[in-house]
Structures are given as structure tokens and as C-alpha cells.
Request: fold
Amino acid sequence: MNDKVYSITFGGIGGQGVLKASEICGWAALYAGYHIKKSEVHGMAQRGGSVESHLRFGKKVYSPLISTAGADYLVCFHREEHPRLKTFLKKGGADLTASLDKVEAAVDNPRCVNTCLIGVLSTMLDIDQKCWMRAIETVFKKMLVAENKKIFRMGRDIGLS
Amino acid sequence: MAKKTTTQKSLLSGNEAIAQGAYEAGLSVACAYPGTPSTEILETLAKFPVIDAQWSVNEKVAYEVALGAAVSGVRSLFACKHVGLNVAMDPLMTSSYTGINAGFVIIVADDPGMHSSQNEQDTRWVSIYSKMPLLEPSSPAEAKEYVKEAFKISEKYDTPVLVRVTTRVSHTKEDVILKQREKAQKGKLEKNAPKYVMIPGHARQRHEFVEKRLKKLTSLSERTRLNKIEPGDGKIGFITSSVAYLYLKDRYPDASYLKLGMSYPFCDEKIRAFAKTVKKLFVVEELDPFLEEHIKALGIKFTAKDPSFRTGELNPELMPEIVGGRAKKVKKVVKRMPRLCAGCSHWASFAALKKMDAFVAGDIGCYTLACLPPTSALHTCVCMGAGVTLHEGLRKGAAQKKIVGVVGDSTFVHSGVTGLINAAYNQVKGVVLILDNSTTAMTGGQQHPGTGLSIRDEPTKKLILEDLCRACGADNVDVIDPMDVKGFAAILEKRINEDALSVVISRRPCRLIKRRV
Reply:
């Protein structure tokens, strides 16, 4: 493991599964052996307000928050939130919003967009496929695991194409 | 309960880590009233069958039940949000005198930036006021360890211990190592009136004890590993606590640090010694100048944050600004405001109030959002229960009669009921509207006496609100579904024009409850 700290900003609005997406990613990083800090705010935000989650992992992570122009990756699920959230992205960082159209076209159920976009993200991170599968098993209820694994793989294919 | 991995590691929020730490410390009893950002502490503890966990009616009740458990000889915990601690201040202040018989830990979660609160108070001051020790973890992994330490300190020094976190600690997740649970203590209730009966004669003795205890705790603060010096290049040094430490470490990895994990009583000798090792000293903390004012009184020269940073949450980007001695630049960020959910029955209740052009004394809950456009039909919000009592007070100077007090079901049970008794006793006429969505909705749907279900969703005695209101002395009690738009408006109109004290219970369960099950 190198000393690099990965910083990923997730954003959208209440009900889009923003926190679930960062949760999958957090557990995958845990299974890969990283130190993790993942920050979010619950409460009023869930009443349809802006939702934001910051995930940082590496050998040692201090701040749970990502600074302006500090994110390596931006995973945004709502286009109206994008102008605000893109200020987090580093110069040269990867903006996953570019894949949002493809992902939305690929999945039938809008509630699965989050898992699919995480599949795309997974192709860019130094985390083993096995860790992602374990993370999905941890985060979702049993009856939803198989479907989410399938959707995650669809996202992976989009990411690799 | 934490999800376990083969390495016994789990990704826990600060709140879950606090619960895990208390569980590992052999906790027996836990009490709280829900409040963001502290709610998940009790929700997590309730998942351990071995722990006697409860949603209490309000924070004062929760504190007293937990204190009683500690006096009976089992480890107990009370958790609340910052404003919740205000409700529990009466027992808190005197429990500092009585002390305990088994470990008693108070978790209080402040909300810098007011993500979900009505004020931005810095609860660290309570430690000085109550003369009780204060621990301040900066992350979930630390929170777990500090809670275990807090139980030890509580028992060794015969004191409740304050563990203060912030939203950022409570809602950050970190990988945390899970450990075995210590054996819980067996209760042992002993009569000891000079310690537990705080009549003046006894309390004078106990105040002497408290002052002596404070000296001993100061000596602990000097030697505890929670107050940690991390030597750096010696050019610049930071005295800091909580998340400010993490933000600084990100920006100034080579600096020297005195990280205060036990921030009260202050460790003056350690602070003096550290100050001597660095060329330029900074004191960086979130919210009030708690450390700053004390260290200034020690006669030590340092740079503190510009007073403009006393409001709002800190973040890593602000660190260079603070170190540079600059004032806060106000950045205007357009964020989507929260609003009532689509299909929520509160829309209907407030549509009727708006149509009547009533002045609405509001309370704490989802329905407080009705103050925002497009509804804009709620005109005060101060604290839990004030929908009922401010309504009474507002009538004193207002000629117009169309004043309505509004309160939620959980909030009414929390502290609205005393206001209703007061109104009846003092012959107030008017309308109190209880918006009964049969849950504590804003914090995520917790049970309360009116739902008839316990913290573990098990059936228990159900409080019948309409019977309670009648018993309090309300002249009329109506129960109506606000989605019956015409019927609801008619009842409101009728009651508001009567010379009587009326309660209208606007009842329709929150749409999010069923989805949860």
C-alpha cells in the first residue's frame, strides 16, 4: 500500500441513495485493508435537501472532510447539484457525472443508479473485485444482494468500455 | 449491533462506535430522547439484547433514570444532543455532588454549523459549570476508546463524566476494531443519605468533596495519555481538540501538537511545558474560545482564531486562514433546502392554518419546515414544548385571537403536556393543534409513549393523547384526519372562535413509517 490518500465526493439529493453509494465504497475500502474516514450529515438533509458524503481512504487518513479542489473523484447523482459539487474536484480529477447518462440508460430501476455508478467508479480504484462483492453483501439486505451485484457488474462494464 | 468481519473490524459511525465502546465496557442501562446528531447511539445500543435500553419521555427523565441505575451499582449511559442537555441540566448539576456507585457517562453531541438544530451552543462550558470531567474524541475509533476510559474515570473519581462529540464526529465513519465485552457489574443498592440526599447540610459536605475531586481530576488531566504531546519540527505548535486536530494534521503534518482529549479540567503544566517547546503557538478549536480564554489567563502568548470563526463549522480549508490570522470570508453556497416530504399530512394541516391567516406558535419537528416558502405558516420556534407555552404567552399582548399553538405528538409528550396543564390552570382560551403523525419523524421515526411500541418495537402501554389532554383540563378535544380538508378547516374555525381551551389532534401516521417495516 502506498501513502496516497484517495478522496471521493458523493452528492445528490435526499432519496437518491447517495449515502448507500458511499457506504458500499467505504466497506470495499475496509475489506481492502485501508484506513477510512467517511463523512456525512443525517437529519434534516434527508427531507429532500442536498446530500453530500465525503470518503477518504489510505494508509492513514486525518480529516474526514475533503477541501475545495481536493477530490480525486466526484460521484454526483443529480445534475442540479453538479455545479456546486464540482468545486470539490481536483484539476485532473475524474468526474463520474460524465457516465451518468449511460448509467441511467442502462438500468431500468432509477433506485439502482447508485450501485451502477459505483460499478463505474470501481474500475478506477485500487480495490480488488472480491472486496466490492463482499461490500455489496454487507451493505444490502439479503434479498437485494444478487440484483445489486448484477447492476454493479453492468457499471463495471460501462467503466471499462 | 456492528457488522463483524473476520478481522473483527467494522465501519462504524461515531455514534455506533460510542455504543460499541459502552457495550464493551459492560454497560447495563442506556437512556435517551432522540435528537440529531445523537440519535443512533441508543438505536445501536438497543440492538444488544443484554443492554436495558429505553427511549425516555424527555432528556430530564432519561438523565434521572440513567443516574438512578448508576446509583444502583450498574454502569449506565445517557445520550443527548446539545439542546437536550439543557433539558437535563437540573439533575446534571446536582448529580455532580451525589456522584455515582457505578460508572455513569453522559454523551452530548453538539452541532456546529447547525445542520439540524436551533442553536449552536458549545456544551464544553457545562464541564466548568458542573465541575465534571470532559472528554473530547475527534473520530469514531477514538470515541470508542474514550467512552471506555470515561467509565473508568467515573468510578475512580465518583463523578459523572461528560463525553462531548460534534456532528462531524457522530456522523463520520471509520474502521474500528471490535473487542470483547467486559463482564457487567452486579447491582448493589446501598443507603447513604449524606451522599444521595441533597439537603443543604449534606450538599455543603458534597460541595467540599466536589472541589477536592476537581483537584484530583486536574492531576489526572496532567498525566493522562488522552492529553497527548506529539513533537514536531518545533517551528509551529498547535493546542487543539476534537476535529480541529484532524483538520490541522492534514494541513500541517510537521507541526508540534498538544491534542487535548481530556479538555477539562485543564492541564496547565502540560500546556506550559508544550508552549515552551515551540517557536510560534496557536490555539485552534471549533466554536467558543473555551481553551483560548483559559490559556490566555495562564499568561501564555499564542495566536487564536479570529472571532469571526466562532460561528459555524470548521473544515480543513479554513486552517490556513486561521493560522494566517485572517477573518472568515463568507462564501455564499446555494444548497437545496429541506422541505416536507411529498404527500406529508403536515402540508394539509398548514394549508388550513395559512388560509385562516393564523399566527402559529411552532415547535421542534418536521413541521417546523412549514416556516419556509411556499407554506410560510409557522411563526415561532424556540425549543421543545414551546408551541404550547409560547402560544399562551403570545396571547398576552396580542389583540387578535387567531393564534394557534402547534406541537408534534412526540414533542407534546416530551414537554408540551406541562404547558397544556398550565394553560388550563390559568384559564387560557385558544387552540393547541397536536400534529400527530404517530412517530418521532424528524429524527428518523423513533417510538414514543403515544405509539405504544418500545425502542425495540415491542408492544408496551400506549398513551392515549386525547385522554391525556382531557385530563389536563382541555375543554374540547377533537381528533381529525387533516387530509379531510373541509372537515379539518371547519373544526379549526369553530374552535378558534369559541371561548374555550381546545385541543385539535390532527392525526395521520407519517408515510415513512410503513416503508421502514
Summary: Residues 6-160 of chain A form a domain with the Pyruvate-ferredoxin Oxidoreductase; domain 3 fold (CATH 3.40.920.10). Chain A touches chain B through 35 residues (CB under 8 Å). Chain A has a mean pLDDT of 93. Residues 95 and 112 of chain A are 19 Å apart (CA to CA).
